[in-house]
Structures are given as structure tokens and as C-alpha cells.
Amino acid sequence: MSVEDVKKEIRELSDLLTLYQHAYYVENAPKVSDLEYDRLYDKLVKLEHEYPQYRFPESPSSRVGSDLNSDFPEVEHTIPVLSLDKAYSSDDVLDWMERTARKSNRDLTFVVEEKIDGASIVLYYEKGLLVRGVTRGNGTVGNDITPNIRTIRSVPLKLSEPIDIAVRGEIFLPLESFEKINTEMDVPYANPRNLAAGTLRRQKSSEAAQVPLDIFVYEGFLAEHVGDHIEILQYLTRLGFKVSSRIGVFSSRNNQEKNRNLPALWTRGVFEDLESYIKRAVESRKQLPYEIDGLVLKVNELDVREALGYTGHHPRWAIAYKFVSPKGETVIKAIDVQVGRTGRVTPVARVDAVRIGGSTISNVTLHNQDYIDMLELGIGDTVSVSRRGDVIPAVEEVLEKNDRGNPVWKMPLICPSCGTPLVRIGSHHFCRNPKCPAQIKGRLYHFVGRDQMDIENFGPETVDFLLDNGFIRDIPDLYSFNYDNLKDFPGFGEKKIELMKKGIEKSKKMPFSRVLPSLGIPEVGKKAASLLINAGFRDIDTLLAAADRGNSEVLTEVKGIGEKTAEIIIREFSNPAFRSMIAALKEKGLSFSEAEDTAADKYPQTFSGQVWCVTGSFKNFKPRSLAADEIEKRGGRTVSAVTGKTTHLLAGSGGGSKLSKAASLAIPVVSEEVFIKMLRNREGDSNGN
How far apart are CA 103 and CA 96, in angstroms? Predict the structure, then answer.
């Protein structure tokens, strides 16, 4: 093959695969089978590997990302990247529209778009090629995260025209993808927005590429004049961008845009229709495949926008209608750090107490440094705090910067518990000292907890007492300490001591499937332990042997065990201190092997194909994970959130917001009593009764 033939074939393959990617990720209309796409993709990669000098910058192969670290340099924006003024009722919105029309002294058209609950981004293109993807930052300066942006398949790397343009958009994670990721996590993410924002700030773009982020764009800034916002949105679509189809256009009766050729799925109306439009948007948001937290109304006419101008905070030609949700305003008093059992260090905001949704909030997790940087949060800032899903307190945004000159808060350099220098791994900071007092306490809390070994009468206060008095130093000591020595201490009567002994002895009978996730290995929770055991790793010695070989491939061959989890397992099982703990627990009589029998042999697979969510508290399933165990034994799958794919909600007392979401999606709600009958009846049926 001649050089010209190679260049031509690489060009043709790149263009064809780009077309197929756009059809699949933007238009949701695949043009070829996955097999054919993979065949063409592999051919392109092979040619680019053999002839790297002919690889195009916008090549579809660049979507996979790189293992090189990125330090996110700061970049100055060339367009205004401001916040929006806010309204909380349809009356406020209509008042704003009327005031804006009066100021303009002419008939106006307003465009209404969904306010995606994601991460704001500005995409810069030169001669039609993506050159920078920059976070909002402080509105003037943001972080250049281009390598991570390039991995998002709905972001065009090359436009249909060779133009210079800046485009604003919102990056988000679809709910179905979020739910799938969370089912594989030991500690689930709080919400899609946090996961999307954290993914964008991952230091290795190859890691960002593993999360299926998506985007909607909503503003385009061109050097040449364009008539109005509607034309910009339609032009952005022609350029190859993904623009939401759920857009409303509202005009006065004198200016109804009758002759406009609007997309079929857009809504057209007059000002009087807006209230019912907002009501429908609120009612339908639970059926959307992504999260929105409001609507954005914009003046359509660009010359009017220019005349109205900006304040120091927001444009005067746009306003955000925010959906009503449990929310409060408070001030960041301090930011502390907590050290978990794996050494992960998490910042926690201490705020002025505020009532939200019937609860008093005084502490709010801030997840990691990237989350704080995204918020640009400092001590003394006035913030908006919500209870996402009516449960998890979260800082939504900074409403007003502190007047003390406090900068964006930064993670300390050393562990607050043991003084060991902290190490950053991915988005999080870690203390790597296994003897760190905070980690030991966290490991013990985890080990004795209800969802793990469930050792009765060993709550956090008891663990604290035993540690603080030097009676135990780590997990194996739980099985060697003489609990009769506690009889002279207040609160430890003879009855309590006997119950503690019984709890310890009972825990020795826990199966390996319960012991393994209780050891506190990062990423190895109940689900991962089950996957490993079912794949043949039925005893601890098999896992130790895999670690000795140092070959993670034998673990990644297990469906559901990713490369990251495999590497962690190899690392932990290679740690002499961890192996010493296993040997000590073996000696104390804990179970480190599982008999070769499957749930399908013992239980009828009557929940096969069903997806259950479990919520609330139960009389017969304490902890409620025991109910999830019964579902999974019978072939069902359990998830942490109610979505359109959920088939049943098992609800105990205090089910909360999941009940209302299930009702809105017409998902059957099963009570504890009915659930027990289902278990008994189906087992009877399987026996021919």
C-alpha cells in the first residue's frame, strides 16, 4: 500500500467512524452493528499504530484517553461565563418576562430550556477542531480538562464547518449509567452530578473514558452576527453538537413566530401558556433519563441581549426557574477532615445549623478536593445546601463569597490522626499508614457492623471504649480479649458481657461470603465477594495464591471485576500486615472457605429477571441487606435507587422518597408481610405444593 493510499484510508476510516459515533451518541440512531463498528475501529487503530505520523488530531481513537497525568492548567475564558439570576415560582418568571419586555420596548420571544443538573463546560473550537475544554471556574478563569473532554463521545472533535466558535454546555451522567455504576460500588456515589464532576477532574483521561458521560450544549458564541438564539441552537445542531429536543418557545400574541420552522419536538406557545408548561416540566422530570433541577428562560433576540447587558453576577437577559426542593442557606464555619478505614481522607463542612426537609443539618460532606475546587469553596462562604433525594446533605453552590479574603480551601499535607504525609490517588487523598488510629477504628466499625459480621453488642461506643482503654488494638484482638475483665467497668454488667461473648462466638459461624467483605478491602464489598466466590475463588488461600503470582488478569476474567479492583486485591493480599491479620483470624476459627454449592441449587430462581430496590426498616430483616440476600438467592438483582428499570420496591417503615418515585413510575410496592409470603409460597411451589 502506498503512502497516499494509507493516508487516504486513515482519513476515510476516521470520517466514517466519526459519522457512526455521531449517529449513535448524538442522534440515538445507530447506522451499523457493534460488530461492524469494532471491525472498522480496530482497522483504524492498527493503521495509526503502523503510521502514527498520519493520525489526525480528531481521530475517533483519541476517545479512549491516556494514562498520563494531567495537572489541569488554568485558562482565561474569552466569553462571559456567569451564573444566572433565579426565580422560584411561575409568577416570578412571568413578572421577569414582563419587566424585560418593558425595558426592551418591543415584542420579544423567550426560549425555555431544561436546566441540566451536571457540570458546566466551555468548548473552544478553532477552524472546526476542538482545542480546549474548560471548566466554568470563577467565570473568568477555569481549568483546562481537554484530555478528559475528548473521551466524551457526544462531544464532537471536529465540526461540520471549519469555524472558530466557543460553546457552553452541561456535562451529565445519564441515570441508567449512574445506577449501573453504583450497583458495582462498595460505597455508592451520592448522585450523578457529583460523579460527573469528579470524573471530569480525574488525572488520567483513560479513567474518565470509563464513565459514559454525555452533554447538551445551549449557547454558541460566534464572531459573525447571528440573528437570534433559536438560529444558534439550530446551527449548533448542524455543526454536530447535541442539543436538547425538550425546548419551549414563547412569544407575545403579537409575535407568535408563526413562520418559524422549529423542530417537531419543540413546544411553541404564548406567554399565557408558560405556567402550564412549567407544571408539565415539573411533573415529567421523574421520567427523564437524566436529572434536571429547573428551567432556564432566555431572551431570544441577540440585539436585545446586548442592550440589556450583564450585572457583575448574571446576564439580565436570562433567568433560572429552580424547582422547589428541600434547601437552605447557611455559612461554612469550618472544614474538617475525616480518615476512613481504607485511609481515604474526606473533607466535611461544619455549617451553621439549618433546617431542611424536617431535619437539622450541621455537617455536610464535601467528597474530595476536586468537588471543593468545582464549588470554589472557602471558609466563611454563604452556600446553598440541599438534601438530594431528601436524604443526602450536599452543598449546591456558593451564594456569596466570604468577606475575610479566605481562599478556596485546600487539603492538609499530613494525616490529622497520625501525622503521616497524605498521598493523592485519583480524585482522593489517602493516609498510607495502616497503623493510623483513625483507620484502625474505621476497620473495626466496619468489621462488627450489621451489614458485615453483625457482632451483637459491639456498637461504635463499645469499640471506642475497648480501643481507648488499650484492650484491643485491631480486629484479631476481638477474638483474644478476655471480656470478663470488663466486669469492674461501669456499663458492663454480667449480662452484657455474656451477650458480647455470644456475639463473638456467633460471628465465627459466619460464612466466607460474609467474612471476605468484612475485612475492609477497598472495592471488595458484598457484591464483589459474591462474584469472586461464584467464579471459583472459594477460599482465602486461592486469593492469596493469585496475589503471590501478581497476575491481575486471573481476577479481571471474573465478570464484574474491573482492572482497578483486581489491582487493589493483589495489593492488599500482598501486604504482610494484611496476611498476618488473616492468619490470626484463621487461628481464631473464622471461616475462610465456602462449600461448593450454588444458590440456584438450594433456592428456586423465581425472582430471575427482576430488579428490586429495598428501602425502609423491617421487623424480620435486620439489617435490611438480609432481605436483599433473599432476593439475590432467588435470581433477582438489587439496586440502590428506583429507576425506570426497577420492577419491585420492597418497602419497610420509613420508605421515604423512594415510595413516591415508585408510585410515579407505576412500580409495584411490596410490603414485608407480602414479601415473606412470596418467599414461602414460591419455595412451596418449587417443591410441587
Answer: 11
In this structure, the strands spanning 648-651 and 637-639 are: unpaired
pLDDT for the residue numbered 405: 85
pTM, whole model, 2 decimals?
Answer: 0.53
Q: Which of 562, 646, 575, 654 has its CA nearest to residue 612?
A: 646
Yes or no: say if 669 and 651 are a contact pair by the CB < 8 Å rule.
yes
Check if the beta carbon of residue 409 is closer than 8 Å to that of residue 335.
yes
CATH assignment, 327-400: 2.40.50.140
Q: Which of 470, 573, 562 is nearest to 520 (CA)?
A: 573
Residue-by-residue DSSP string for 391-406: TEEEEEEEEE--SS--
| Rounded CA separation 684/602 (Å) | 13
How far is it, in rounded angstroms, from Cα 628 to Cα 636? 9
CATH architecture of 437-507: Orthogonal Bundle (1.10)
677 has catalytic annotation: no
Give the CATH fold of the 512-587 domain: DNA polymerase; domain 1 (1.10.150)
User: What is 599-686's CATH number?
Assistant: 3.40.50.10190
Backbone phi and psi for residue 61, each to the nearest 5 degrees, phi listed first? -70, -15
- For the chain, percent of residues with pLDDT exceeding 90: 40
Mean pLDDT of 24-51: 73
Residue 390: the pLDDT is 46
Residue in 7, 8, 46, 115 annotated catalytic: 115
Q: Does domain 85-322 have CATH number 3.40.50.2300?
A: no
Q: How many CB atoms lie within 10 A of CB 606?
A: 16
Question: DSSP of 467-504, one letter per residue?
Answer: HHTTS-SSGGGGGTS-GGGGTTSTT--HHHHHHHHHHH
**What are the residue ranges of CATH 1.10.150.20 in the chain?**
437-507, 512-587
User: What pLDDT is stored for residue 688 in this prediction?
Assistant: 34
Residue type, 303: D
**How far apart (Å, rounded) are the C-alpha atoms in residues 685 and 687?**
5
Distance of CA 182 to the CA centre of its chain: 8
CATH of 3-64 among 3.30.930.10, 1.10.3720.10, 1.10.287.610, 3.40.50.1010: 1.10.287.610
Query: DSSP assignment, residue 54?
Result: G
Q: Which of 101-110, 242-251, 431-440, 576-585 has the lowest mean pLDDT?
A: 101-110
Q: Tell me the C-alpha distance between 25 and 320, whole Å.
A: 28
